Predict the structure of HTH luxR-type domain-containing protein.
Amino acid sequence: MNSRESADVLTITEGNVKNYVPNVNAKLELRDRLEVAIFAVKHGLAAFEA
């Protein structure tokens, strides 16, 4: 998902998403959104759909 899509789902502004993403990455010690997505799937926080 890009920032705009994430903002729509979370009902927050795109700017907030852009501020939150680096904080989430830092707290989870992950490099990018792809690693966050993999983390979420591995820990049952998100489902993978092909």
